[in-house]
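quick q for whoever's on today - can somebody do inverse folding on this one?? i tried earlier but teh output was garbage lol. tokens:
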């Protein structure tokens, strides 16, 4: 047993240096090469940072396309889901409240037509994207409030829709921040 203690201690020290020092430095170095230098890719309008490209933000005004709900109120430091199952009474109450609010702000929409992503929070609570259907269902409301044709807003949604990665991986999506920035820039 004594002959195993020395190699075990050496292996522990090597792994400690490798995993606690070297690996984090390599990851941080690679992150510096990413857009935003590892601090997140910001979206700037007229020289002012309006948000982060990959972090969801709260848009609740009728003149904007609404974001997906967040279980952590869009706090990136506390990224998490609600951890409540689909049969949890508190969860069901929160989803029903979101449905009721959505229907009040989007008259003429049937409950069955609301995409689930507009009334359920994502696993991270920070999802920046909606499906094209999640954006399109809000077109009539935004068009009415802004006095823009629904056809023009549908074109804007289509312009902001990004297809699946390499055409096959994942669903089509619309970044809500990018869509709302483009919406503000409409003449």
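ok took a stab at it. sequence:
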């Amino acid at each position: 047993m004594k002959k195993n203690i020395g190699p075990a201690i050496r292996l522990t020290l090597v792994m400690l240096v490798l995993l606690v020092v070297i690996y984090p430095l390599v990851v941080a170095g690679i992150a510096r090469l990413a857009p935003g230098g590892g601090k997140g890719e910001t979206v700037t309008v007229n020289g002012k940072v309006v948000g982060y490209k990959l972090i969801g933000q709260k848009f609740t005004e009728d003149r904007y396309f609404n974001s997906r709900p967040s279980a952590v109120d869009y706090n990136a430091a506390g990224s998490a889901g609600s951890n409540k199952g689909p049969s949890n009474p508190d969860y069901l109450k929160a989803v029903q409240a979101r449905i009721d609010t959505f229907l009040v702000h989007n008259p003429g929409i049937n409950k069955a037509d609301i995409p689930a992503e507009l009334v359920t929070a994502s696993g991270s609570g920070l999802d920046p994207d909606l499906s094209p259907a999640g954006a399109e269902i809000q077109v009539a409301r935004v068009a009415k409030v802004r006095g823009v044709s629904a056809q023009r807003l549908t074109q804007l949604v289509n312009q902001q829709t990004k297809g699946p990665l390499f055409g096959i991986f994942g669903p089509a999506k619309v970044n809500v921040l990018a869509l709302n920035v483009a919406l503000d820039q409409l003449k």
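fwiw Residues 43-184 form one domain. also The two ends are 79 Å apart (CA to CA). so keep that in mind when u check it
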